[in-house]
């Protein structure tokens, strides 16, 4: 039986709650696995996850609690500017991601022997995970919400805001990590951003 024709002017179909739940769980799991590759190789990444990793290396506090603490102000901002649906989905993704990173080590051994390979794998996994989250109306990176708002409010490009934050994260990383680890981390961040830049196209995939 052929599918019914779409009504002219009808918007894209929304994902069902079950589809959103599995998509967010899948995305959070991939991001957590990617971060485990980075953490076990002594690497970092950009945005809020990078802030939490660098703070974890410097303080010895677990990544999960730090990531949640850093993320909460961004999602308070998201609730104000974007709405409750995105904010609740994103909070669920953050909670799942943080819990998986903290709970996984006793059950899953990740022991990369090459920092640059670990960075590449971590970037690919996290990029795929973020794509899944984006396509189900969620996110892990609250910096992006602020960046888009700042662009709308002042004209300052969102990409420049995110690059500025990433530059600050990697500069801070140099204080607590060897420069080769920071260089490998930059490779991972570049791969992650390439995955998102090539594949996150609203003109090709618009269902939320």
Describe the structure.
By secondary structure, the chain is mainly alpha-helical. The protein has one domain. 71% of the residues lie in helices and 0% in strands. The protein is built from 8 helices and no strands. It has helices at residues 17-40, 47-59, 63-81, 84-103, 115-135, 142-154, 158-173, 179-199. Residues 1-9 have low confidence and may be disordered.
Helix-strand blueprint:
Layout: H1 17-40, H2 47-59, H3 63-81, H4 84-103, H5 115-135, H6 142-154, H7 158-173, H8 179-199
Helix pairs in contact: 1-4, 1-5, 2-3, 2-7, 3-4, 3-6, 5-8, 6-7
Quick gist of this model?
The chain has 208 residues and is mainly α. 71% of the residues lie in helices and 0% in strands.
Features:
8 helices; 0% strand; membrane; transmembrane helix; disordered N terminus; mainly alpha; 71% helix; globular; single chain; 208 residues
């Amino acid at each position: 039986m052929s599918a019914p024709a779409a009504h002219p002017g009808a918007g894209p179909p929304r994902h069902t709650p079950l589809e959103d739940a599995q998509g967010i769980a899948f995305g959070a799991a991939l991001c957590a696995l990617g971060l485990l590759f980075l953490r076990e190789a002594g690497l970092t990444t950009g945005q809020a996850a990078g802030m939490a990793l660098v703070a974890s290396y410097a303080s010895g506090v677990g990544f999960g609690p730090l990531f949640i603490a850093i993320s909460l102000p961004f999602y308070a901002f998201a609730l104000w500017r974007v709405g409750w649906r995105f904010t609740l989905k994103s909070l669920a993704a953050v909670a799942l991601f943080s819990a998986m990173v903290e709970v996984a080590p006793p059950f899953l051994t990740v022991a990369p022997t090459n920092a640059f390979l670990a960075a590449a794998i971590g970037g690919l996994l996290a990029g795929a995970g973020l794509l899944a989250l984006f396509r189900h109306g969620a996110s892990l990176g609250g910096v992006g919400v602020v960046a888009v708002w700042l662009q709308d409010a002042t004209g300052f490009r969102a990409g420049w805001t995110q690059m500025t934050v990433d530059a600050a994260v990697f500069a801070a990383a140099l204080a607590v990590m060897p420069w080769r680890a920071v260089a490998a981390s930059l490779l991972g961040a570049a791969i992650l951003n390439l995955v998102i830049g090539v594949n996150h196209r609203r003109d090709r995939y618009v269902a939320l």
